[in-house]
Amino acid sequence: MGVFYGIGVGSGDPELLTLKACKTLRLLDVLITPVTAEEKESLAYNIVRDLLNHNVEVLFRRFPMSEDPAIWQESAAAVAEEIRILIGNGKNVGFVTLGDPMFYSTYVYLLQELKRRGIDAQTIPGISSVTAACSKTGVSLAEKNERIAIVPAVYAHTDIQPILDAFDTVVFMKVKGDCSSLIERLERAGMKETAVFVSRLGLDNEQIVYDLDEIRGCNVNYLSLIIARKKR
Amino acid sequence: MGVFYGIGVGSGDPELLTLKACKTLRLLDVLITPVTAEEKESLAYNIVRDLLNHNVEVLFRRFPMSEDPAIWQESAAAVAEEIRILIGNGKNVGFVTLGDPMFYSTYVYLLQELKRRGIDAQTIPGISSVTAACSKTGVSLAEKNERIAIVPAVYAHTDIQPILDAFDTVVFMKVKGDCSSLIERLERAGMKETAVFVSRLGLDNEQIVYDLDEIRGCNVNYLSLIIARKKR
């Protein structure tokens, strides 16, 4: 029997890979890397390609971007079935994910489908975009007894005032398109001045914006987040 | 002028260091490592000791455990002053922190004191205990549009019901001593069954407990956390 590894490759900068991730990549016979239907290349694969053995087989597998979990489950089930056969044939199989595998990642669907088939996974954590953004900008996520909320930006359209009230740091994930209304909410909550917008960190077209007025009305990339803090 | 680096060394397992952290450690002339008054050894130093140059100077500096920020600030100011002189003498200086430097770390006080002295820092993120615990246990922190709250366990003694209601995943940090009352709250909120307790991950005396009843009434170590999830 081979072994299955889920490998977090960090938020973009290849140097943010862990030693464990590098070591594991070299054990692989087969690497599975996710691609969306929309993008032809795999960001996760681009990060690890130079670290693989020359004889590793690379399989690009589609995980379409969709709000429907059934679609993700279907993709995950097909890949899990493929992994089952490969490790049955004694192959070590890896699956790479951008950032951390347990943090807003498709990987979790794959994990569930593997579990259903009685397959153990060894998961290797990665530096998430949030962690990397904090180090890059010098913004601390939390100190002492502070509280952190991490929410997809879509919640900015609901009543998030209780969350803004109750937490010291609020991270908005999956910021995309025009985020003017989110910026207005942060302004009203007195959290705009200390907020920072970070997009595609460690990737091409990286963007760090400290004055959120600069991105009002812009169509921002989907690999973006905003970290907002109460004034200390 | 030398350069100052703040280096996250991961949650305990030395293999969770990033390539960037390893590369940076080899650039150092001086390594500053924090110790508490209570513990004689530095956990962060133990992780990196084998990766340092032979001629590196290692300075153990005290950051006493205290609830009083003034005490931390005082320690940070003294270390910042030391760094100012060292980099003025052309030395590359590193400061290591367990986990991630921006996530509940003393490092932030140091960063503030350095800023006050006009000193730039290059901060290198690390795998936090939360991220590592999720990979180890197979518990995902968030999927799709879920919301995450991260709160120090001391809040379990206040009205945390609104937080338990509003979030899909709630991580309790700095769990220590007897956490029976927190367990009872999770039970009432229907989140006990899916919760996991993780202590000293990657360090000696590592402990992972899926049935929280097992730790009721125990005096748990301070490097512990509980990840609680709503049933999906």
From TrEMBL, chains A, B:
Pathway the protein takes part in: Cofactor biosynthesis; adenosylcobalamin biosynthesis
A Pfam family reported for this protein in Swiss-Prot or TrEMBL: TP_methylase
GO molecular function: precorrin-2 C20-methyltransferase activity
Keyword S-adenosyl-L-methionine: yes
UniProt cross-references to InterPro entries, sorted A to Z: 4pyrrol_Mease, 4pyrrol_Methylase_sf, 4pyrrole_Mease_sub1, 4pyrrole_Mease_sub2, CobI/CbiL, CobI/CbiL/CobIJ_dom
Keyword list, A-Z: Cobalamin biosynthesis, Methyltransferase, S-adenosyl-L-methionine, Transferase
GO biological process: cobalamin biosynthetic process; methylation
Tetrapyrrole methylase domain mapped to chain residues: 4-209
Gene3D superfamilies to which the protein is assigned, alphabetical: Cobalt-precorrin-4 Transmethylase, Domain 1, Methyltransferase, Cobalt-precorrin-4 Transmethylase, Domain 2
Keyword Transferase: yes
TM spans (from-to): none
Source species, domain of life: Bacteria
SUPFAM superfamilies named in the record: Tetrapyrrole methylase
Record CDD domains: Precorrin_2_C20_MT
PANTHER family according to UniProt: COBALT-PRECORRIN-2 C(20)-METHYLTRANSFERASE
Family: Belongs to the precorrin methyltransferase family.
Protein name as catalogued: Precorrin-2 C20-methyltransferase
